[in-house]
């Protein structure tokens, strides 16, 4: 049975109203005999005091940075970080982790001790609803009010584009052939699949733009091919790309495919997915059909579910949801709601020239700094000064010797108030870029956790 969207929203709205009513008396909905900290959505999670409160939803690259720097820049504000995962797992560097170049400990980090050190509250909870009218967030452990809200939910997989409302097909695809593009157990499942792979066809479907970290699927293909080569596994990697060519850093990746992995990687452009059968292991695309032994099936990306629940999603000219948060391009708050900021991958179009910022950890981290600064200025009663991010991504293409390529983006506002982008691709692979990549990761981890 499927539930249409209108009925779902009505039901969800009624749910929020009930929850909000339940919040009036702290812990009124606590069932007698239950330990206090088990919590429920109808409880008050944290009573609000006099200090301005900033609630940050999502403890990934953007949210963690915001929480830490807000405490430094606005010491009088109360900062609460809500995150559903118990541990931070970094997607950057994870392609190297898949092939055992780094340990799990390098890319996982603790939340609790870090939050205590930096003076913000970390609460591990699922954010269920955002009532922007009441300025209240409802979580699995209770509800809390905010003065400023920062949403940093990352992305969701749009399996509906492939399977409509058929949850069985979507669940089977995610369970058997995970994309591992959102931090959770999927990365471990993918690593296990690679390490158990005995040979045959390994297929990767690449989503249409805009997508999280566009060069990283090509890096992943190179790392998988390198792993096959190194371990004498008779495997072939087929990249089914929605795009008409490799980008960014196209010449650098194509050189790696041709010079390092001629017998291992086949690149297919314009491979728009028509249908996928995870049970029969079959894919039909505009560029041809394939059977596979294992696949990394990346459905199209959209802003994380929380951006939808908070009603932040923009509209197409036909009035349909466009999948991404509708923010003021310069100040990053929602159009029409200056108390709510959206940062990182969930952000929608910011410029007619290049449309979206690259959906990267580098940009999310920069957004965290920028929005912490904007809110601190507003808390102090001043007008925030415009700041723009930059972007830098390193992509490893060879394991022996270790070599990487890179791409950099810079931004400025032109005299019409439009953000302009400059892109610099470094296509020549080198060992120095690998060193810079690990230095970059170390500095960013230090910035969020140090
Ligand atoms: C394989 C791979 C390689 C990559 N390599 C690079 C790279 O080299 N360089 C680079 O700059 N970028 C890279 N990226 C991209 C990078 O990981 C993302 O752009 C970055 O994580 C975006 O940060 P974010 O804060 O927007 O989202 P995230 O980091 O995904 O954080 C979102 C957080 O919100 C939490 N959340 C969501 N909904 C809820 C809810 N309802 N309740 C509670 N918590 C919730 C999630 O659990 C998550 O922790 C790579 C990505 C992948 C997949």
TrEMBL record:
Transmembrane segments: none annotated. This is FAD-dependent pyridine nucleotide-disulfide oxidoreductase. Gene3D superfamilies: FAD/NAD(P)-binding domain. It comes from the Bacteria. Residues 53-157 form the FAD/NAD(P)-binding domain. GO terms for molecular function: oxidoreductase activity. Residues 190-290 form the Sulfide dehydrogenase [flavocytochrome c] flavoprotein chain central domain. It comes from Hydrogenophaga intermedia.
């Amino acid at each position: 049975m499927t539930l249409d969207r209108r009925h779902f929203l009505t039901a969800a709205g009624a749910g929020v109203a009930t929850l909000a009513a339940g919040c009036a008396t702290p812990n009124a909905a606590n069932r007698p005999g239950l330990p206090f900290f088990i919590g429920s959505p109808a409880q008050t999670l944290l009573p609000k005091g006099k200090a301005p409160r900033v609630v940050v939803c999502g403890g990934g690259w953007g949210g963690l940075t915001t929480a830490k720097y807000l405490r430094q820049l606005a010491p009088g504000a109360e900062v609460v970080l809500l995150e559903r995962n118990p541990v931070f797992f970094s997607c950057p560097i994870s392609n190297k982790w898949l092939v055992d170049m780094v340990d799990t400990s390098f890319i996982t980090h603790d939340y609790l001790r870090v939050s205590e050190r930096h003076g913000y509250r970390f609460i591990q909870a699922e954010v269920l609803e955002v009532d922007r009218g009441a300025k209240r967030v409802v979580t699995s452990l209770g509800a809390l009010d905010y003065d400023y809200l920062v949403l940093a939910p990352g992305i969701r997989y749009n399996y509906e584009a492939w399977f409509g409302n058929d949850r069985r097909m979507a669940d089977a695809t995610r369970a058997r052939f995970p994309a591992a593009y959102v931090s959770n157990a999927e990365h471990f499942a993918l690593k296990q699949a690679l390490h158990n792979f005995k040979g045959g066809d390994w297929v990767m479907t690449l989503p249409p733009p805009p997508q999280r970290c566009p060069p990283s699927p090509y890096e992943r293909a190179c790392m998988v091919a390198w792993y096959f080569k190194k371990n004498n596994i008779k495997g072939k990697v087929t990249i089914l790309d929605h795009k008409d060519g490799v980008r960014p850093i196209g010449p650098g990746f194509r050189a790696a495919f041709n010079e390092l992995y001629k017998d291992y990687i086949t690149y297919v452009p314009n491979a728009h997915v028509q249908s996928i059968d995870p049970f029969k292991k079959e894919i039909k695309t505009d560029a041809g059909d394939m059977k596979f032994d294992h696949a990394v099936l990346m459905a199209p990306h959209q802003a994380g579910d929380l951006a939808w629940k908070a009603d932040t999603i923009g509209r197409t000219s036909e009035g349909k949801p466009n999948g991404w948060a509708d923010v003021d391009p310069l100040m990053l708050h929602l159009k029409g709601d200056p108390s709510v900021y959206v940062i990182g991958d969930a952000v929608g179009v910011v410029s007619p020239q290049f449309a979206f910022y690259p959906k990267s950890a580098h940009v999310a981290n920069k957004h965290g700094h920028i929005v912490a600064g904007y809110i601190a200025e507003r808390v102090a009663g001043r007008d925030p000064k415009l700041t723009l991010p930059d972007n830098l991504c390193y992509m490893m293409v060879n394991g022996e010797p270790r070599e990487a390529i890179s791409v950099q983006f810079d931004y400025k506002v032109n005299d019409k108030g439009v953000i302009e982008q400059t892109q610099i691709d470094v296509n020549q692979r080198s060992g120095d870029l690998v060193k810079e990549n690990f230095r970059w990761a170390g500095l960013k981890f230090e910035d969020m956790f140090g």
